Amino acid sequence: MVYNCYRLIVGALSLQIALAARSCSNGVSLSFASSSADSFRVTYNNQNVQIQSTTYSFKNYKSPYSHNVALCYLKPYTVYTYSIEDKFKASFRSLPPVGEETELGIVGDFVFQDKSINNLLKPYNSKNSQALLVVRDWPYPNGDQSKWDKWFNLQAPTFSKLPVTGINGNHEDTDKEEKYTTYLNRMPGPISEENKNAFRTYYSADIGLVHAVFLDDYVGALHKVGGQNWLNERNLQLQWLKVTLHRWIALRLLT
To answer: Which residue positions does the secretion signal occupy (predicted)?
Structure first.
């Protein structure tokens, strides 16, 4: 799915659950790709928003320009409409409030050409998915970076309307020298810059009634497996898990 904006190809649209920070409360991150570093006008809720553009290289491959913008301070479970240069327009529903009934779509290990994820836009037993969780292994690039471009375009009909987040698998970090490069550049979701720089992709997010915890099976894999640095990274993730679960339980007891 591609869109023509002033002769620029715009595609790979996705709505990603944003980092729960003071600067972007209850937000999503809109991400799309184009062949130009030029700034695009993005409008939502009748206001223009600031956009950032980045690109990255992997061996002989140079990525399209990725344009990212945070849509913040959204009212819970409310329909919002956004547009890109008045050439593409779509609507999505923000996340349900904490503690409310929640319906999630959970997918992973995609077949590269599989479009079945689009079925998650349809109600199931009269229930609509409110967010999409990807539990590792996104497009199986196996070293072919262009597959990321094609795959995101393939999933754009869903990703442009349904907030998505997830976690990496071996195909995003250890396989074919990926080393997290593409995943961290293309998924500006709820991972802090500090953790991105340290290749720590684990995190948690509150989505309605659900406290979703994402652990990286391969954390530390960029070090020698079984070595001290590898073990240190594994232990850091374990300690983080204990802290975040204890904090979540304490908050639930208060409410």
So the answer is: 1-20
